[in-house]
Amino acid sequence: MSKVLETAIEASKRAAEVLTHYYTRLKETEIELKAKNDYVTEADKRSEMIIIKTIQESFPQHSIIAEESGLHSGNEWKWYIDPLDGTKNFIHGLPIFCISIGIEYRGELVATVINAPVLGEIFTAEKGSGAYCNGKRIKVSDRQFEEAVVATGFPFRGKDLLDKYLLCFREVFLEVSGVRRCGSAALDLAYTAKGVFDGFWEMSLHPWDIAAGVLLIEEAGGKVSDFNGRKEYLKSGNVIGASRNTYDKLFEIVNKYLGD
Ligand code: IPD
Ligand code: CA
Ligand code: CA
Question: Does the C-beta of 87 come closer than 6 Å to ligand 1?
Fold first, then answer.
């Protein structure tokens, strides 16, 4: 295992301790509204601080893009950090939340950790070395589209696109076996890599929601693209990740309603 991945795992474990400390014990005064429907808590901030501190102890030159503190510029290594993905679940006491860390070198995703502390699952991947959950190799599903369970997120940041999204949702919903909306995009991607879900799509995300999960799905044998079939998901925030058996049909529908 590379030193970069080891450090990312260590950072996620320290952050997990912080999140576990605050989970179900948050005070009203520790919750702030960032934008409409978008919350940040003391737990998000402290988790991010410990992750950044851990990275900088080993790699002081690396660049970091973190949700709550923005860009810390450095060299061609870039860490995308979501210190708490699923903040709304966390605030409400729903254990579906995680820490998501995706690492890029010269524009290519090379290592990933998604740590879901209450669920007891740590997902890891390195470019070319496969994807793992708690150290065990994971693979995307091989179910057919009609039997698929796909996950999605609602476009609460792009409500102007709600009607188009709902048409897309309707068609997917009518064709697959089930649709889930769990409230953590990073975990939706991780569960797609693990074959729990067969696919996932969501629009208007941020790079820290997506980066880690993309590499997990690719290393688990799945496919990832934006809504136009390109690899611009970190820029647009629009992502489809799926098993090979689900990707084509899911892409066809999402592209029809939400592509350029
Ligand atoms: C959110 C979660 C959610 C998704 C939102 C994200 P946050 O991240 O991933 O599932 O629907 O678009 O912003 O705010 O909890 O880090
Ligand atoms: Ca997030
Ligand atoms: Ca977050």
Answer: yes
